[in-house]
Amino acid sequence: MLRALPCALIALLTGSVSAAEITTIPDAAVKQAIALRDQALKDGQAYALLESLTTEVGPRLAGGVNDEKARNWAIAQFKQLGFDKVWSEPVTFPKWVRRSESASLVAPFPQPLAVTALGYSPATPKGGVTAPIVMFNSLDALKAAKRDDVKGKIVFVSARMKPHRDGHDYGIGSPIRSRGPAIAAELGAAAYVLRSAGTDSHRLPHTGVTQWKEGGPRIPAAAVSNPDADLIEAALRRGSVQLKLQLDCGIEGDYTGANVIGEITGSEKPDEVVIMGGHLDSWDLGTGAIDDGAGVSIGMAAGALIGHLPQAPRRSIRVVAFANEEAGLYGGKAYAAAHKQEVSKHVLGSESDFGSDRIWRLSASVKPESLPAIDKMMQVLAPLGVERGMGAGNGGPDLSPIHAEGMAALSLTNDGTRYFDYHHTADDTLDKVDPEQLAQNVAVYVSWAYMAAQADGDFGSAPGAFKQNGDDD
Ligand SMILES: [Zn+2]
């Protein structure tokens, strides 16, 4: 805001922007948004959806046995909630399967470890890999390693994430998981193990995807739980440590899933859409309640509240349950590829994919002339505890590709203090979701989405409009 508002003021003062170009929210829309907000706080719809998804479908590994079941669930829910258009758009990706996984220290003493394979990890040879561990404290230390120190060994990268409200330590943990194995493979490592990218102290390892270089070497890659990482470090302080890792997992051809989309058709500008949602896939260890059944449920419930108004919104409300976010934003990329010609018609978007604890911050990537409209939204959101963020928002993971094409976007930040205790573990289950906090999320989404649908003027969506924001998060 501090960066963008002066631009708006300068534009107004210098007369390069006329009052007619300023985006505003009509008073009646603000009043209706307040009513929707207050209704959402008392509405149990999102929780009922999330309970249904995590109970009746369960874990939703992309391309796995529940992929189609989850899509059928989303189609049925959209229809039942009164979305008048419901359709699917195909998304294709390499299908990765997890069969079994185990690890143990073999020297200086035998000790079984809690371990999980990373997505797109290949299997170990039959009988597993047994090798000495070489430890690094950061990705940079690994990058600087000599080939002779790594070759034939099991690389172990150990950096402990601390909890923060904005979850920024994931910026350390995530690259160690996603990029570390490829670096270790190029240095000739036999396998790769990381301290889980998580903030808990349970013997529950955190899975997640890893990325390989096209045509580059691939090695078995896994995460151990935080207490097991502590144990490995303690053993290393006593001398050399041998680890045995056994993974049975790998890629089984291609799979075609789909983004499932529900829409409430607008009354005046049906081809202009306000877009929200979450990703329908999850990791397989838990039931994907916080990541990201919550996001799908929040979008569906917020859309349904608008759909149940006696008067349809001026613009259409589109809710997307994205395919396969976890293994590499496949659904979000496919959506952007299919819709980039209509980027100007994507008036404003935001995906929920950071759990469902209270939303405390709104960051906007919009044109300066629409900041008065964002200020109006803030008047409705501030009583929910939402502050105005200083940075630009990219709209969340699955909407970041279409944002990069030029869609105006909001980023709504949840309180992420607890998020990385459960993220990508067997503990990502329904009991971690607080129904009241989930309802606060729906209240936030229904408020901004309705006001965006009713706004006089746009938020600056146009081809290439937000290129400078890149994929910052
Ligand atoms: Zn997610």
Layout of secondary structure:
Layout: H1 4-13, H2 27-41, H3 45-57, H4 67-80, E1 85-107, E2 111-113, E3 115-117, E4 129-136, H5 139-143, H6 147-150, E5 154-157, H7 170-178, H8 180-186, E6 191-195, E7 221-224, H9 226-237, E8 242-264, E9 269-279, H10 289-307, E10 315-322, H11 330-339, E11 346-351, E12 359-365, H12 371-381, E13 387-388, H13 400-405, E14 409-414, H14 419-422, H15 435-454
Zinc ion (ZN) is lined by residues 279, 291-292, 325, 353.
The total count of helices amounts to: 15
Oligomeric status: single chain
CATH C-level name of the largest domain:
Alpha Beta
Tell me, rounded to a whole number, the average pLDDT: 95
Q: Based on the coordinates given, report the CATH architecture of the largest domain.
A: 3-Layer(aba) Sandwich
The share of residues in helices is 25-40%
H/E element sequence: HHHHEEEEHHEHHEEHEEHEHEEHEHEHH
| Hetero groups | zinc ion
Please identify which CATH superfamily of the largest domain we are dealing with: Zn peptidases
Residue ranges: pLDDT <50 for 5 or more in a row?
1-8
Shape: elongated
**Biggest sheet, open or closed, and with what strands and sense?**
11 strands, mixed
N- and C-termini, Cα separation? 16 Å
